[in-house]
Amino acid sequence: MYETDEEPEPRADTLASGAPALGSPAKNQRDGHEAVSRETQLAPTLPRPKRPRVIVVANQKGGVGKTTSTVNLAAALALGGLKVLVIDADPQGNASTALGVDHEPGTEGTYEVLLEGASIDDVAVPSPEEGHLWVVPATIDLAGAEIELVSAMGREQRLNKAVRHYVAENEVDYVFLDCPPSLGLLTLNALVAATDILVPIQCEYYALEGLSQLMKTINIVKGELNANLRLGTVLLTMFDTRNKLAHQVAAEVRQHFPEETLTTPIPRSVRISEAPSYGLTVLSYDGRSAGSLAYREAAAEMASRDAGRTE
Prior knowledge:
Layout: H1 25-40, E1 53-57, H2 66-79, E2 84-88, H3 94-98, H4 110-116, H5 120-123, E3 125-126, E4 133-136, H6 145-150, H7 158-169, E5 174-178, H8 185-193, E6 196-202, H9 211-224, E7 230-237, H10 244-256, H11 270-274, H12 282-285, H13 290-307
Parallel strand pairs: 1-5, 1-6, 2-4, 2-5, 6-7
Antiparallel strand pairs: 3-4
Helix pairs in contact: 2-13, 7-8
């Protein structure tokens, strides 16, 4: 089983001060790129899906590991040789931070795609995590998009049109859409653009809280805006093997979603929590940690499932 009480090993960029080098993003990005590149030579090639999968990672309940799962699964799939795009649709820009890309105010990204009709090709930037991984960053400008989209023509279809065009013009296996923990217009745009929903569920009390509302929203979107949308994957996060409640929650989730729930849970891990402060995923922060291994196993399971799907 995965350990849950990990303690981080000292890193070269923290030995002097004992704290992450938050003021040195270029160095952090370079370190992460080199770390993952070394592992890429040993990583097995994951199977490609029969058609590109556009996955929205959604859960209106906060603190369930939504963005963490987005960036680490995306990096793991890219590490396995698949071509991956992450679209950060959360104004906080946490996915952009974790993947080591600039998202200072004024940086072109998701806002320009939604409000100005920019092409994803024009705003996507490579992540230093892995050569097959690209990111559309989110800046604080996106915080005003909810209001600006209210009066926009075809407001629910803005992201869908951009993603469809990108998929048609580029060789890509996975597109991940990271959303805010709410059911506003940003999340609605992502739901309309997606083919699959990935729901991270925290293995703690109230784990299923809010999920019923999410499922209602999914059904409304399916009926009105995106008939192809489906719940594709449920991922158990923050799993503590020493906690009986975690096992009970996992069993309950698997009872409700037997086909969708991945067999690999993501453990509660110090290293998973620390990695974003370095502008890294846990895969490049500590590739041998339990969290890194779990995300790689979960990504491999996703890829294997998707490779066998024909719809």
